[in-house]
């Protein structure tokens, strides 16, 4: 039987469970008919662990899919991993220090015992015996002591020599000059190493005679041009075209995307907007080569389900609280606002998304500032994307005293995300652009939490009721508009939730089985 | 009555169905916990409200207990401690998931504590001593030893304590467990028409020890026709393993299978399933040395010395040896009797009742001592207000018990006891001087060990209030009147914090040390609902520990000999807020540049500390003196004595307080007291004080970049200030008065 390959080329260290593409892939895999599974996952060795975690996180039996990977992790990746680990894993040094401390303590303790033993002697004869005993012990140990001493002074001497050399040589100025070259060079070499490994993944697929179609869920792996089989490329969006100034250094990525689009036999995107504006208008792709497959709802409730036998004693909300509290107690101390808190008493909103500039996190943070500082409110914001990498936002949060109002919880499990959505008063999505209707809506609605969202085409085009648009959409460029909508949503959460029922039901008509059947249809067509 | 109430803190379904009716029949009122962890409920746990009606305690207290999670990871709140010690003399608990209930009880409950021991099953621990040592900290163990005269190792089988250490051995009492009525639904229904051996082994692929038992059984009985029942969270690839069975399916096996084999040789642990089989009448073949053999009588036909004998007996039963079957069925009755209601009731009456009926006469109303600490930087001008507040707290405390004591501690060398605080000494408040000493976490840890207490120590160093005598460890509670202590308070004695408001969050992020103090505080006192809301919603403080108390402030007579002039506007500012002070000056300067009039403005700077902000004050003074515009119009003040400060208020035309600061409510009260127009920023927590003081304020949005002050100074409104009607009834306004707060805590 002919099979469909899935090409996964994510970089080392990627956590597929927290990437949008990864989660979409999980739904596609999960809903593929268990008995007729004909999908094989191909990836570099470094990604196998992340793939397994993705399957586990989404409760997909590991043995349902064949995972074919390259045989080893390239040396360059290992070296880089080592350097990263060395930077972040201080614990190892601590362990070493503990060992030295223990050794020191044992030695001192032994010496102390010897001294006590010696001074406790109450006859001259015993003292003489002891002196003789200690002297012979000392003579026996002398060679070892001398060696240890010599080794110690040798290391000290070398360290001193290095320090003198560094002082004498114009080390810093040389280093400063060559550092950028080294960094750039190192980056370029690393990228080549990754590219080569992806070429190996291509070879793995090409070797298989049973693969006639390959699904590539991202556009940045241009190595796919060498694939012999038919190439189905997922094209979520090319967001750079809408925000050309916001992505410095993206030149090479853009080239790769264009190369991938050029060699793809067929493209799948999630909205008509991306099909028309990005793929047809900007890239000139033949409309017949593009299929729009919209997402289905994400049902987060399954992560909070409790067994039937205890449902009368334990609610889903209690379950959510227990999940969140376990996370809080193992990650935060009593100095944190969220420590030992009753989440039902907090008015918190959640925005679950990776941190990207077009996700518009800054305006959302400004809205929180307006609510809490100008309107003297008490709203908390939980973000799953780490805004702190953007210095300007970090500074804004600090200078507006928002550190106790905005919290980042990134790389979290689906279970925790579901629990946070359950406890949030409202979900907020201020994004300026999405390839399809944002996942966040159904993520939160499925656990009983309403959403307020950006009034952008991909969102507003799905909402037919103008009243509902008024209730739930805000101008994402205007923090006051976001603030006003959040405050209203928190005060009127049930009204908003009720009003959004029809929209959720509309999306519910599409389930992931249907989505997957549409994907399979595209794969099958391509195979013919 | 208290002696007849029991806290039954177990959440175990099977046990609750037998033990709770038994305890009820013994004449007790019973409280059962209503919140349990998911893991407890999943492991045969349950929650029952069936016994709430037996309790004759106030409904409000029962509701409070019902909402409390006895398994929570944080300390037991003082109000829960108060309730359980007020109404209950006995508590029964078990291991839960990590001995967290037992730990809470030994540190907080002052009655008899019964620890139910069912026997340690398959685990890496050999006995309860090892288990408790694993979960308990050293200090918990010290505490357990301290209360060993009221701690009971309540063993379900009489041999459990034999392998435990002395403290459990000495305090062991036999309180057997029984089987609930529903177990008897299958009584004598065994027919044995299915010639199969029934064996139980759950969680085979989940627990390594279980897999070992499974493999041994398969090896020993490979030639037999058998079924293996038991829940399997991870499926087992074996047709003979049934996996989870509904109760009716299980009962069907008890009716039909010819014989059961019970493998365990553990003398101190027993599963329920051999007992269920025995109730049905199925012959059970079991091993000598196991608990069944210990519970059986002289003749035990089902007992086997080794596996060969077991195989042999199983084979004989499968072959239909009627005599053996009948002998085994007959002998099993002796074992079942040990689980019967009659047997249990008798044992509990003989062993349990004598202990709970002679309870130690712990007196919940024994006199209590509270150490109150005034601010380190106590403004002299508000000393009277603080004294008024302390007087109120003291009144509340002696209303509970005239023997209660309050020790007021003022920061070292800052006050003259005889003159400043004499009115309190007249009221029998003890006065002391204190200082704050920074001590290391190790020091705190050592101190806690000596007091047999456990606290999580997150920080490297802590602040300890010190009087160089007992350092206040003799107090039952500490209360800090300053909530802006910027270092963690040593968690040695349960402490409370008085918070007037947390408006400073609009000027700076509240520090992690302050959050830690508020989170670790056993109670928080505040005056307004809005501040309570802010504490809950901004800092995530649990609402249950925040108590609203009336607002008390000084109503001193004005000393008319002190005169500060008339017709001026008084502005208050906080010298610690450099940026705001500078903006204030720019705004005032802007006003005079524009109007060039002779408006008289007096500015009082709060929080003046020479070494900290003295330089800023000097600079401002210099600026005023050098400016032709300002020097005749502006006067600056710091550190005024209370009489001078009162006079400054009494003669002012209006009072402007553009930003929030310490003692703000005392200032608002003073302005109202002197019937002055008050202009403040529009913080919501001020608005509630209009009601409290029965007086109106004027609000402006000072917290912007605009020169709002210019507008305020320019408008010469003739609006007469409200007339202040002094509300003399301190307890009248709030529903929660001060003594009711103390009642919940002490």
From TrEMBL, chain A:
The chain crosses the membrane at residues 141-162. InterPro entries: Glyco_trans_1 (IPR001296). Signal peptide: none annotated. Residues 344-493 form the Glycosyl transferase family domain. This is Glycosyltransferase involved in cell wall biosynthesis. It comes from Paenibacillus sediminis. The keyword Nucleus does not apply. Keywords: Membrane, Transferase, Transmembrane, Transmembrane helix.
TrEMBL record, chain B:
It comes from the Bacteria. Keywords: Transferase. Gene3D superfamilies: Glycogen Phosphorylase B (3.40.50.2000). PANTHER family: GLYCOSYLTRANSFERASE WBBK-RELATED. This is Glycosyltransferase.
